[in-house]
Amino acid sequence: MAGSASAGAEGGPALRYAWAKVNLYLHVTGRRDDGFHELDSLIVFAGVGDRLSAEPAERFALSLAGPFAGGLEPEAENLVARAAGLLADAEGRLPPTHIRLEKHLPVAAGLGGGSADAAAALALLGARLGPGSALDWPVLAARLGADVPVCCYGRPAFVGGIGEIVERAPPLPAAWLVLANPGIALSTADVFRRLEGRRSPPMRWDAPAGSALELADRLLQRGNDLEGPARALQPAIDGLLDAIAATEGCLLARMSGSGASCFGLYAERAEAQAAAEALRAAEPARWAAAAPLLHGPLERSWWETAAAAG
After folding, report:
1. Three-state secondary-structure class, residue 268
2. CATH code of residue 234
């Protein structure tokens, strides 16, 4: 995933950042016999997210902190704990580790926060296992949720299937994103139930986008098929999208994932920061943050590096 794990000074805790996932477009291309929907989406990561640390302990433990920790599931249900459990079952061992999760992203918000946390936990625990593991990391990640594989991949990617097919996207330009949530959670399952059979074709591209404006123009030819159902469930999304679109320098305003979080695309940092400040000032209950579009590591993903070391 975007953001690297690192050991602290003098053997302190290893750290990992779980960056917010943003669906720049999301097309539902079909529905499988098992009921899961197939997707075509361009996913990027924004430089704002949760923070995870890991250090040796007598047994596995997970502690929660941060402004959105209160919205998380109990430990047994948390995706970080589930990632540890799956890893222990698959590997037959798990180094006793204390993971501290600082939750800075809204929960159930369409930003992939739980999936990014799970990906970060796999990276931290995988590093503690050391080289030589024969685990199939992508398969393990997919068992945790549809967004976990791309969060492990950690750079702009086209995603297909139900999320398990991850392919590197062409180069994207320097750009800024404003992420905003109206202060409500939205169930992904409820949004998909409202989809009512809509299907869209895949609309990927091969050529690099040379500027933020060019990227916005391409995205305007695409959409988010979940936006309509989400807006029907939570009309507050309408007002949030209008507020983002009205900010100076906004090239595109769209909902991310299954909502209720939305994003604006900007060419300049100053425009994005001013927009985020304006959104927060207008509605105190609203969460908003400006962040750069992360282009991700040029090297292999962490699980490819671990496999090569083994």
Report:
1. coil
2. 3.30.70.890
| Active-site residue list | 21, 147
Asked whether residue 83 falls in the same domain as residue 149, the answer is yes
pLDDT digits (tens, 9 = 90+) for 257-308: 999 999 999 999 999 999 999 999 999 889 999 999 998 654 344 444 444 4
Residue 53 lies in a domain: yes
Residues 21 and 144 in one domain: yes
CA distances from 299 to 2, 4, 154, 303, 305 (A): 11, 11, 11, 11, 9
Q: What is the pTM of this model?
A: 0.90
Question: Using one digit for the tens of pLDDT, what is the confidence trace for 117-133?
Answer: 999 999 999 888 877 66
Are both 213 and 269 inside the same structural domain?
yes
State the first-to-last Cα distance of the chain, in angstroms, to the nearest integer.
Answer: 20
153 and 17 assigned to the same domain: yes
Contact 67/32 with Cβ under 8 angstroms?
no
Question: Are the C-beta atoms of residues 54 and 7 closer than 8 Å to each other?
Answer: no
CB atoms closer than 10 angstroms to residue 221: 9
Please tell me whether residues 215 and 237 are part of one structural domain. Answer: yes
Amino acid sitting at position 46:
A
Model confidence pLDDT, tens digit, residues 177-229: 999 999 988 898 899 999 877 789 999 999 999 999 999 999 999 999 999 99
Angle between helices 137-144 and 302-309 (to 10 degrees): 140
The mean pLDDT of 234-239, rounded to a whole number, is: 95
Which residues span the domain enclosing 47? Answer: 9-168
State whether 15 and 112 are in the same domain.
Answer: yes
> Per the structure, how many domains does the chain have?
2
Helix ranges, 19-147 (H): 79-91, 113-129, 137-144
Dist CA 47 CA 267 (whole Å): 15
Backbone angles phi, psi at 194, to 5 degrees: -90, 0
